[in-house]
Amino acid sequence: MDSTKRILVGEDSSVIINLTKSVLSFENYEIKSAKDGTQVLDLLQNEDFDLVLMDISMPKMDGIECTKAIRNLPDQAKASIPIIAITGNLKNFTKEQYKTMGFTDFLQKPLNYDLLLATVKKIINK
User: Fold this and answer.
1) Overall domain count for the chain
2) Which residues lie closer than 8 Å to 98 by C-beta, 6 or more apart?
């Protein structure tokens, strides 16, 4: 069997973090979380992950700024990690704009956890 896939969740809502961890842990993904973009960058620079779930609206450093910083990391493996945007304001940007900002895909809040799981599996199992 493949090694356990690791997912980093950048989200400032403890409720969403806990629900996401519950759903993804059930599928045997290893989950770590960060409450803001600076914590996401710190964890990503010190550990390896297969995917990032990134809330757009977080304190200190939002998801868009954090994603741009990740895409500019000198380590190409980390700079190219798949990132799924999680947003309550889907209508603010088009799919093409999310891609231009560096996101691999996006999901709208409130999260549909079946869709979240399907999207994660689609990207992580490529």
Assistant:
1) 1
2) 85, 105, 106
